[in-house]
Write a structure and sequence with these properties.
Order of helices and strands: EHHEHEHHEEHHHH
Radius of gyration: 19 Å
Helix content: 40-55%
Structural class: alpha/beta
Shape: globular
Largest sheet: 5 strands, mixed
Strand order of the largest sheet: 2-1-3-5-4
Bound molecules: uracil
Number of strands: 5
């Protein structure tokens, strides 16, 4: 997908078909994802940047063997923050874990996780993450399709919602004010409000 796409889709690892074609989500999971789950939410592949956490699927799906190979993930993080994204859809457990440090896709799916820090070369970028059930799980348990469609619908609604001030900027400014004024709450508050006023054009 385009480098500067507003939507970033992050999966787990390539399957057999993905290995053959050198592209993410072109096999059975991908077909289900693009032509049903995302299509129903009017999210099209051409508008998304698509990647995986891992560049290969380990034998027997044993990801522990790959856990130490962080170079590929570093590159992917760089790609994620290279352009402002409206949100990142974390497709499945691994993507959720790598992006947010949280575990349990069945609990987190369908939520909107804002201001998730992504660290690249010592710099933090704050992103919005929407965790979604993996379509591969739907292929094993068909009833999960309802949840996937719901998650995609949530993404569609978020796309249609205009955002106000970029929260990441606010948080950085707040952190900076805290650093400068130490524990003077009033000074921190005043500086923060001045910054906000300036931002809102008051
Ligand atoms: N499953 C994934 O997580 N990613 C792909 O690219 C294909 C299947």
């Amino acid at each position: 997908g385009p480098e500067d796409a507003e939507i970033y889709i992050l999966g787990e690892a390539p399957g057999a078909k993905e290995d053959q074609e050198g592209q993410a989500f072109v096999g059975p999971s991908g077909k289900l994802m693009w032509s049903d789950i995302f299509a129903r939410a009017h999210i099209w592949r051409k508008d998304c940047r698509v990647a995986n956490v891992y560049w290969e699927r380990p034998p027997g799906n044993d990801f522990k063997k790959l856990e130490d190979d962080h170079e590929y993930w570093e590159d992917t993080k760089e790609d994620i923050v290279a352009h402002p994204r409206k949100f990142i859809i974390a497709v499945g457990e691994k993507a959720l874990q790598f992006l947010t440090g949280q575990v349990g896709i069945t609990s987190w799916r369908g939520s909107i996780l804002r201001d998730i820090p992504i660290e690249v070369n010592g710099n933090l970028t704050f992103v919005t993450v929407l965790p979604m059930v993996h379509p591969a799980a739907v292929l094993r348990q068909f009833s999960l399709l309802v949840l996937c469609r719901h998650d995609a619908r949530r993404a569609q609604r978020l796309l249609a919602t205009p955002s106000l001030a970029p929260p990441s900027l606010e948080i950085l400014q707040f952190a900076e004010a805290l650093r400068r004024h130490g524990d003077s709450e009033e000074a921190v508050y005043n500086e923060y409000m001045d910054t906000l006023d300036a931002y809102m054009g008051a």
